[in-house]
Amino acid sequence: MGGLGHAFGAFVVPVLAALGLGLGGWWVLLPVIWFAGLAALLDLLLPEQTRFRVPPGGTGGAWVVWAMFPLLAGLLVYALHLVAAGAFTVWEFLGAALAVGLVQGSVGLTAAHELIHRPRAWERGLGVAISSLVLWAVFRIEHVHGHHRTVGTPDDPTTARLGESLYAYIPRSVLGGLRESWRLERERLHRRGMGPWHWRNRNLHYAVIQGALLVGVTLWTGLPGLLFFLIQAWIAVQLLMTTGYIEHYGLQRRPDGRGGWERIGARHSWNSAHRLTNWTTFNLGLHAEHHRWPGKAFPELVDDLDAMRMPFGYPGMALLAMVPPLWFRVMDPLVLQTRAAA
After folding, report:
1. For residues 166 and 271, what is the distance between their CA atoms, to the nearest angstrom?
2. How many CB atoms sit inside 10 A of residue 334's CB?
3. Are 248 and 265 in contact (CB under 8 A)?
4. What is the Rg, in whole angstroms, of the alpha carbon atoms belonging to the chain?
5. 56 has a pLDDT exceeding 50
6. Sign of the CA dihedral 163, 166, 171, 172?
7. CA angle 126, 187, 238 (to 5 degrees)
8. CB 138 within 8 A of CB 177
9. Per-range mean pLDDT, top range of 60-74, 133-147, 267-281
């Protein structure tokens, strides 16, 4: 059922979005209704996904991740076609941009997250292609070479601090991620005897690709299409940052006494075994094991019982994070308990 669950989770939200775009009116908000209500409710009602070992018979499921780029690119093209045709009223335009951005940020960027960790270059490239649809190709560098090394330390801009609200975290994380991507690439090129503006700088590659994408959208659909594209990209990146906020909020690695930090362990990530969360995010909820073994494909990940436990699945946690007083009331005591037990 796991493979079928991931296929269902990956495809249901883009299909809902395409259906809503085609029907117009209030239907454009179908993905919003899914995320803000149905997904969180189903996470509570469905039994948790207990996975303490990889099922026999291989790991499969790779095709689901590969299929995300044509699916999401097609959804975006369809939406831009409708914008160019003048099919939307102002509020439908905004609702559709919100819906497409939610799909790109949830299913799209979690698929990209899976792909940028893959050993094969063409799969990493596919992850960059998905990230480029929302103008966040720097995710490839910042996440893999930055976050995975510095998570749980003051050096990581994507680890949320205890007492930091989501609304303070997002701008710090976005700006910090951009700086990290450029710093890491500058250091990589320096080790090879190259300057920061050398043509091998991958950030420059990404800037050219994304700039060409913006020019192409503008030439095809005009300023309304460009505005739509920018809004959906902004929504998607906000959702990615919200996910990052949830995954490591308040969790810290201790100094190792040698000028560094203790090894990344199970208690440096918040885990979720909620079934719908993991079906729709390629097992992203099994986050502790992902950090300990970043090269593992998503079907190989299992639940680490030593990890910190999210009270809800990702949709519920995201809704909670949007109300900082409630978030602090629920999460801060859990963080303090962890620190006391360390």
Report:
1. 19
2. 16
3. no
4. 20
5. no
6. positive
7. 45
8. yes
9. 133-147
Q: Which string of b and e fits 254-266 if b means at least 16 CB within 10 Å?
A: eeeeeeebeebbb
**Confidence (pLDDT) at 209:** 97
Containing 318, the helix (H) or strand (E) segment is: helix 314-321
Q: How far apart are CA 107 and CA 277, in angstroms?
A: 11
Handedness of CA 106, 111, 112, 114 (dihedral sign): positive
| Run of H or E residues at 270 | strand 270-271
Query: Residues with Cβ < 8 Å from 208, sequence gap 6 or more?
Result: none
Return left, alpha or beta for 68; rule: phi > 0 is left, psi -120 to 50 is alpha, else beta: alpha
Contact 60, 300 (CB under 8 A): no
Query: What residue ranges do the domains of the chain occupy?
Result: 2-49+60-341
Cβ contact 314:281 at 8 Å = yes
Which secondary-structure segment (H or E) carries 308?
strand 308-309
Structure tokens at 337: 């308990």
pLDDT class of 273 with cuts at 50, 70, 90:
confident
Residue 211: in which H helix or E strand, if any? Answer: helix 202-248
Residues 138, 203: contact at Cβ < 8 Å? yes
List beta partners, residue 271.
309
